[in-house]
Specification:
alpha+beta, Aminopeptidase, Alpha-Beta Plaits, 4-stranded antiparallel sheet, elongated, metal-binding, zinc, Peptidase_M20, Bact_exopeptidase_dim_dom
Length: 400
């Protein structure tokens, strides 16, 4: 790190360790939300709870935590800082307490340490530091729930309730390199886009018969397997930055009786897409592939049930010439002494909601680590501090 150090490294890692020790699997973020709120309130940063409710499918009730710094020029841009508070469900294979927060050899261990409590700690201390600066533009801090859950309800609610309407750009401190396209991305890195995702939910209807006479029935499980294989052969889209799309069957469920030809099966298939592939394209691709099989079963192609029809992870790419990218590039060089790599995310997250649905130029810049979503997850502590400094310097340049 160069002389551009801004935040207190020890306080930053102490904060991260405290948060890792608070379990916060998705739909169970209440204790961590209260902690984030109290931390901001103790520093007179005027946090507010932003309620998130989804009664129909998940029955979820929770709260984002938001806060705002007001600049002195109403015509200056507004910058969104975002991180999620939740983790995946606690993995059973840990050889130690999954929320230990143990630090060893520059690595802090714990479920969600990298994805993404490291990034959350970074924007918290960055927001505190920015409050001490004379900025022309506003900064909107958002710590959200349910990024790891099925719908990204926290970020969705921010967009739906208009929090992003007056924002001009966004920084999301997700772990970037470990989840980027390619194996050679290292921090410092600016991740300027992400693929999108659809989830096929396909019903296959066959005909029941006695299992000793399968020729008298139509086996929905067998036909669902054929559909799964056909979908993996779809010609996916490609993009110069985002790479190729992908298709991956995730679930095949059907049959329950001990000696009956299964008459129903359900198939769920992941489809990652690139810019230029629409929902209509994705549906048509599946229907064409299935029609070519000429199956006896009836096949209905749909998508996963969602709380609202416009909840989607759309692909996006941020212009590398956007002022936010320039500000972060310069900040990364000042903080680390190294020009940042430019990369693109391989999967989806809240950044898709900001980059595609909200239409905000969105950059992912976050600390790296390993074993994301698994036992032994860790984050590099020095990168947490570097990311915080980069956010402060980049935001100051953009909004100053």
């Amino acid at each position: 790190m160069t002389d551009a150090r801004v935040v207190d490294p020890d306080a930053t890692i102490d904060l991260l360790q405290e948060m890792v020790r608070i379990p916060s699997p998705y739909f169970e973020e209440h204790d961590l939300a209260d902690f984030v709120y109290a931390w901001l309130a103790d520093r007179d940063l005027a946090p507010e709870y932003h309620h998130v409710s989804e009664p129909d499918i998940t029955g979820y009730e929770g709260d984002n935590v938001v806060a705002r710094l007001e600049g002195n020029d109403p015509d200056a841009p507004t910058l969104l800082l975002n991180a999620h508070m939740d983790t995946v469900k606690l993995v059973e294979d840990w050889a130690e307490d999954p929320c230990s927060g143990r630090i060893e050899d520059g690595k802090l261990y714990g479920q969600g340490a990298c994805d993404m409590k490291g990034g959350l700690a970074a924007i918290m201390v960055a927001f505190e530091a920015l409050a001490e600066r004379d900025l022309a533009g506003d900064v909107l801090f958002t710590a959200v729930v349910d990024e790891e859950g099925p719908y990204g309800l926290g970020a969705d609610r921010l967009v739906r309730d208009g929090y992003t309407d007056d924002c001009d750009a966004a920084i999301v401190t997700e772990p970037g390199p470990v989840l980027s396209q390619g194996d050679d991305v290292e921090n410092p890195a600016l991740v300027l886009g992400a693929r999108g995702r659809f989830l096929y939910d396909i019903t296959v209807r066959g005909k029941a018969a006695h299992g000793s006479q399968p020729e008298k029935g139509v086996n929905a499980v067998v036909d669902a397997g054929r559909v799964a294989e056909a979908l993996t052969d779809i010609e996916v889209g490609t993009h110069p930055e985002l790479g190729d799309g992908s298709v991956c069957p995730l679930l095949l469920d059907g049959g329950s009786q001990t000696l009956s030809v299964p008459e129903r099966a359900r198939l769920m298939v992941d489809r990652h897409v690139v810019v230029g592939e629409s929902e209509a394209d994705v549906r048509a691709d599946a229907e064409t592939a299935i029609a070519a099989l000429d199956l006896e079963s009836e096949v209905d192609v749909s998508f996963r049930e969602a709380p609202e029809p416009d909840i989607r992870y759309g692909p996006y790419v941020t212009d590398p010439d956007h002022p936010l990218v320039g500000s972060l590039r310069g900040a990364a060089e000042r903080v680390t002494g190294v020009a940042p790599a430019i990369a693109y995310f391989s999967s989806v997250g809240d950044f898709n909601y900001f980059g595609e649905r909200a239409g905000l130029p969105t950059v992912i810049v976050g600390p790296d680590g390993e074993n994301i979503h698994g036992a032994g997850e860790f984050v590099y502590t020095d990168e947490v501090v570097e990311v915080a400094d980069i956010v402060v310097e980049g935001a100051s340049d953009l909004l100053g």
